[in-house]
Design brief:
The complex is a heterodimer of chains A (447) and B (485). In chain A, 37% of the residues lie in helices and 14% in strands. With 447 residues, chain A is of the alpha/beta class. Chain A folds into 2 domains: 66-80 and 347-446, Aspartate Aminotransferase, domain 1 (Alpha-Beta Complex); 83-340, Aspartate Aminotransferase, domain 2 (3-Layer(aba) Sandwich). In chain A, strand 3, helix 7 and strand 4 form a beta-alpha-beta unit. Chain B is α/β, with parallel strands linked by helices and 485 residues long. Chain B contains 17 helices and 12 strands. In chain B, the strands form 3 sheets. Chain B has a 7-stranded mixed sheet, sandwiched between helices. In chain B, strands 10-12-11 form a 3-stranded antiparallel sheet, covered by helices on one side. Chain B has a two-stranded antiparallel sheet with strand order 8-9. Chain B is globular, with a radius of gyration of 25 Å. The mean pLDDT of chain B is 95. Classes of the chains: A alpha/beta (447), B alpha/beta (485).
Chain lengths: 447, 485
């Protein structure tokens, strides 16, 4: 066995020291009738060379995005990742450590998380960030639970139909068990109307969830929506696409109470959907309702600045069923990656990435809809993602033809929006070139 | 030559004009931003992020890495966390573009290798659990627990809506009651008896027609396999409840006994413990769950199904609880888990558990003479020692010992857990440590128990910082750097 260092002689000496004759004797507390009594039925063991060949052979049946022109988005994006991010996160002093329970032996992880928390407050404009959650959807759920606790309202949660459908499905799963109603306000024009929102909120509404840019890539009228939420005494929960914040107004400027985000775009591979990074940040007044880990600054006995896990009385290992959340870890390694990414990009890099995304997406939208028979489904301002309507019943054929030509053309929306069954969500990042966009447009023109 | 210097924060390294990343010029005709976006949607100032160069970033974070203890640098016997060696082949393979550079919404025809791998993960976990249906969606152990409770709650809404009570032993992880609360169920504690096992009388007294689930960690958090498990599952099943197995301690029983065979109806795995995916300084992990036949229709959507020679995602599951997160799951973790399972095979997994149990019993035999182990002379993969005698006689606490161990180059065990043992020290060596390491650890532990109170009270002495003021951190929370501070 490759990872078991003890030799048969070691094992014998250990058994003698324990005072038993065999390893089997150590398992005698497990009643015989509960023993498996056979080997597990698993595929045979592979050595490293065989495993590598096997994974390469199996992997050959996948088409990595890097071998295509990838126009897929919808919460996961093909952004460029600087080499320093992979290099730092492959330091095994980081990735083989655990939650920093012993601060004296974990200052590396603790300081990196403190820096991550700070970078997230700088990115969002909010007062406090935690050490991260699982992903954008779970961060949205936790924001809802925070809002319910903070407002003491458990009757209703209102979400725009333009919020990522999988985030809404996740919120619904949680709320079903708590008896809270999730009201979704449809967005047939691509964005949420403040009037319709006003009709959906009531005196028992804990929060309003809006995404900016929204799932369709469109920009919502955030200040007006925040006003509606606040007028009803509800909190304004905002899901943002962090890359867009290089250019767009930070959520603190338009009244967000809790900000969540999928952090994948900040230096993390697409990984077929995970692991990702759940970003959550809030105003100061909600800090004691924050779920998950928080790192705080303090001093050691000699007065030196250092960092520890703090405000742990919110957490499950102390509060048990009264905890703010059942979450006990964060996504430490991905928080680290994100910190390295944001440090590498800086204000200038973030601005440039956002501008490249914006310009290329608008070029793509023009090319795709000029003389091709395709139309943009919504006429709202957008950032780097937009919805195009394809001729009746042709979405799947277009996606398949594109795949065969090495293009991931977009995400078909029919799975979540029956009214948009003929629509494709197209995302354009800084990695897409004019030539790739022109190829996509040519494909669209052929129909 | 470890870097012992106080490290500045990134923000203190910032110098205006520094850049670490240079992006290409825009290759499409650019239009004024004012034409594309409404003025009120655009930020009026650049982000206040630090400005540093690439060498600044690298030296900063590499120096930080040197301030951690980790499995690759130190023995890390953190009980209940199974800090075993993380194989490098799994890191390399899972980061290949064929596995890492896949978008969650790319066409299934371009994902057949991924879906096949995930299907095999479902099959292998089902076999190891002895339970027929698996969801790979949950993102962590606690998330798996919660997902399983959602699944059970949905099952009871259909079949017996009055069942809202979750019974949990007093020694359980805090996530168990927290998950029950998050699932809208009521957590009720069941006592342990003097042997550290479930008190059957207390269990009987609390079982009734409102009981939904009994959550049990077996082997338990004392590292003991509860031999009453057959009786427990019989009692709970007769009362109409379901058994949830917290799979945190699966490293002790792989291929020896299966939760499904000893009566569990649902369980979660911790791939970051049992199947050696890296802990990452606190994640990411994953929390796949396995359930019995009658709960299978309620599992989250989607799952991977095989059709002929192909694989696809099944979204048509009308009784499903829905989603517990976005996309498929923590796939990067599952790829590593798959590599681990394929490296070991059936015999290899059994040997993992045998050696984990051997190592723990050996260490127990070495330390019990100077640090009492209330549960007795045998354990499974971990054990709980107590320093309450030292505390009474020499005022040496478990925390003092934990801190002093750092000076000897060992990470501390889990301390003050489980809550039912005073001055608890929960030690889990794992199978990837050698006898020589265990001997050195036992020797260090013994020396520490002989040291003076004064020396221990000020420990650790050799780390980059001494004990931090945690009270100050909580009373005056400083959770982000600010220029004026």
């Amino acid at each position: 066995m490759p990872y078991i260092p003890n030799t048969p002689q070691d094992q014998q000496a250990m058994l003698e020291a324990i005072g038993v004759g065999s390893i089997d004797e150590l398992f005698k507390t497990i009643p015989d009738e509960l023993r498996l009594g056979r080997e597990l039925n698993l595929p045979p063991a592979l050595g490293e060379l065989e495993l590598t060949s096997h994974m390469n052979a199996l992997g050959a049946a996948n088409t990595p995005a890097g071998q295509t022109a990838c126009f897929l988005g919808g919460g996961s994006y093909d952004h460029f990742i600087p080499a320093v991010v992979d290099m730092i996160s492959s330091r095994s002093e980081f990735y083989t450590a655990y939650t920093p329970y012993q601060p004296e032996a974990s200052q590396g992880t603790l300081q990196a998380i403190f820096e991550y928390q700070t970078l997230i407050t700088q990115l969002t404009g909010m007062d406090v960030s935690n050490a991260s959650l699982y992903d954008g959807a779970s961060a949205t759920v936790e924001a809802v639970l925070m809002a319910m606790a903070a407002t003491r309202r458990t009757g209703r949660v209102v979400a725009a139909g333009s919020v990522h459908p999988e985030y809404r499905q996740t919120v619904k799963t949680y709320l079903t068990n708590l008896g809270t109603e999730l009201v979704t306000v449809d967005t047939p024009k691509g964005t949420l109307s403040p009037e319709q929102l006003a009709a959906a909120v009531d005196g028992q509404t804990a929060c309003v969830i809006v995404q900016q840019p929204n799932f369709f890539g469109c920009l919502e009228e955030m200040a007006a929506l925040a006003q509606v939420a606040h007028d009803a005494g509800a909190l304004f929960v905002v899901a943002v696409y962090p890359t867009s914040l290089g250019l767009l107004a930070r959520p603190s400027t338009y009244g967000a109470d809790i900000v969540v985000a999928e952090g994948q775009a900040l230096g993390n591979p697409m990984n077929y959907g995970g692991p990702y990074l759940g970003i959550i940040a809030c105003r100061e007044q909600f800090v004691r309702r924050m779920p998950g880990r928080l790192v705080g600054q303090t001093v050691d006995r000699r007065g030196r600045r250092c960092w520890v896990l703090t405000l742990q009385t919110r957490e499950q290992h102390i509060r048990r069923q009264k905890a703010t959340s059942n979450i006990c870890t964060n996504q430490g390694l991905f928080a680290l990656r994100t910190a390295v990414y944001l440090a590498s990009m800086g204000p200038t890099g973030m601005r440039k990435v956002a501008e490249l995304c914006l310009q290329k997406a608008h070029y793509a939208a023009d090319r795709l809809t000029q003389g091709t028979g395709l139309k943009q489904a919504f006429d709202r301002p957008f950032f780097n993602e937009f919805v195009v309507r394809v001729a009746d019943g042709q979405v799947d054929a277009l996606v398949e033809k594109a795949r065969q030509e090495g293009i991931f053309a977009g995400v078909p929306l029919g799975r979540w929006y029956p009214d948009l069954a003929d629509c494709l969500l197209v995302a354009v990042t800084e990695k897409r070139t004019q030539a790739e966009i022109d190829r996509l447009a040519a494909l669209g023109a052929r129909g | 030559m470890r870097n012992q210097q106080a490290t500045k924060l990134l923000f203190e390294l910032s110098r205006p004009g520094c850049e670490a990343t240079v992006l290409p010029e825009c290759d499409v005709p650019a239009r004024p931003i004012g034409e594309l976006l409404p003025a009120e949607a655009v930020a009026d100032a650049p982000l206040p992020l630090p400005e540093v160069t690439e060498p600044d970033v690298v030296r900063h974070f590499v120096n930080l890495s040197g301030k951690n203890m980790s499995v690759d640098t130190n023995f890390y016997p953190l009980g209940s966390c199974t800090m075993k060696y993380n194989p490098k082949r799994n890191e390399r393979l899972s980061s290949l573009p064929a596995w890492a550079d896949l978008h969650p919404y790319q066409p299934e025809a371009s994902l057949q290798g991924m879906l096949e791998m995930l299907w095999h993960c479902q099959e292998m976990l089902s076999e190891i659990a002895g339970l027929p249906a698996v969801s790979l969606q949950p993102a962590a152990g606690a998330h798996g627990e919660l997902t399983a409770l959602f699944t059970a709650a949905a099952y009871f809404r259909d079949h017996d809506p009055g069942r809202k009570k979750v019974l949990i032993p007093d020694q359980a992880h805090g996530t168990n009651p927290a998950s029950a609360a998050a699932a809208g169920l009521t957590a009720v504690e069941v006592k342990s008896n003097s042997a550290g096992l479930v008190d059957l009388d207390d269990l009987r007294a609390k079982l009734d027609e409102t009981t939904a689930v009994f959550m049990i960690t077996n082997p338990n958090t004392l590292g003991v396999f509860d031999p009453q498990i057959g009786q427990i599952t019989k009692l709970v099943h007769e009362a109409g409840g379901l058994i949830y197995l917290d799979g945190a301690n699966m490293n002790a029983i792989l291929g020896v006994t299966r939760p499904g065979d000893f009566g569990a109806n649902m369980m979660h795995f911790n791939p970051h413990k049992t199947f050696s995916t890296p802990h990452g300084g606190g994640g990411p992990g994953a929390g796949p769950i396995a359930v019995c036949e009658r709960l299978a229709p309620y599992l989250p959507t989607p799952i991977v199904v095989r059709e002929g020679d192909g694989f696809r995602l099944d979204f048509n599951r009308p009784k499903s609880i829905g989603r517990v997160r976005s996309f498929f799951g923590n796939v990067g973790v599952l790829v590593r888990m798959y590599c681990y399972l394929r490296t070991h095979g059936a015999e290899g997994l059994r040997r993992v558990s045998e050696n984990a149990v051997l190592n723990a019993n050996y260490l127990l035999a070495r330390v019990k003479h100077f640090l009492p182990v209330p549960q007795g002379d045998r354990c499974m993969h971990e054990f709980v020692a107590t320093s309450s005698k030292l505390k009474a006689e020499k005022h040496i606490s478990t925390m003092d010992i934990a801190k002093r161990l750092l000076d000897f180059g060992f990470h501390a065990p889990t301390v003050y857990f489980p809550l039912i043992v005073p001055e608890a020290m929960m030690i889990e060596p794992t199978e990837t440590e050698s006898k020589a390491t265990l001997d050195a650890f036992a020797e260090a532990l013994f020396r520490i128990t002989e040291e003076s109170h004064d020396l221990l009270a000020e420990a650790p002495h050799t780390t980059t910082i001494s004990r931090p003021d945690e009270v100050l951190a909580a009373r005056q929370p400083r959770l982000a750097w600010s220029p004026e501070a």
